[in-house]
Amino acid sequence: MSPLGLGTVKFGRDQQVKYPWSFEIPDDNAVRELLALSRDLGINVLDTAPAYGSSEQRLGQLLTQRHDWVIVSKVGEAFENGQSRFDFSAQTTRQTIERSLKKLNTDYLDVVLVHSDGDDQRVIEQEDVLESLQQLKQAGLIRAIGMSTKTTTGGLWCVEHTDVIMATRNSSDHTDDPVLDRALELNKGVVIKKGLQSGHVDTKAGGSGIEEALNYVFSHDAVNCLIAGTINPKHLTQNAHLVSQLTDSAD
Ligand code: NAP
Prior knowledge:
globular, 8-stranded parallel barrel, 251 residues, 41% helix, binds NADP nicotinamide-adenine-dinucleotide phosphate, 10 strands, alpha/beta
């Protein structure tokens, strides 16, 4: 995984999102250009989900050389008719993976994460989703499984029992610090979400907000990859340059 991954919510969904400014979903040419630019900048991770509207479908149509990419998708949440719906049953998990494979035009997913509804513990203890993902991994449809958690307890369980954790890390949210500490001890995969607080860090052009936010994310040695969402080529380039300065100097 490259240290910076591209988050693709904005490729497919503009309803009920928490960004500071409204935006237009980019057209096919703009998405093609963002994907090509990502490759040129050394980015190989794409983060998508059924809950991101048409994101998976568009990636399936517009992505070339699928095997060059690490595709991260999710199960558990769907977004239909302007509403989120959660379902962690075995049947829906299998159907979701079948649909994601079809939409993404591929025969395997690199990483599949459970999209938590907030109640990590109930999902882990009472739902079939993680066991179903394990079976789909054994069947060769998925390479690595994990969860995008919302609680420390859920994160700690996932670090022990799955391959990859998607955790939150930014200077306003320290909930997952113990999770990252444990992931480092166990050498588990760590992908970070909300590193830029969904764009609510100080993002003025040339300002220090983005640099400080990225610095903070990579100040923990457990972090393998930050998923940052953007549909702006200048922001993508800035993020990639800043992250490569941080991670190159750490090598
Ligand atoms: P984010 O990456 O923290 O922030 C994205 C926002 O920051 C966008 O509005 C973007 O606007 C802006 N931005 C990015 N780079 C910038 C720069 N250099 N200068 C100024 N503004 C910049 O938030 P996110 O989209 O909520 O999360 C990122 C990804 O994580 C998502 O795409 C998704 O794949 C994943 N995620 C997963 C979960 C989960 O529960 N699994 C939850 C949240 C997010 P522009 O488009 O204008 O650049």
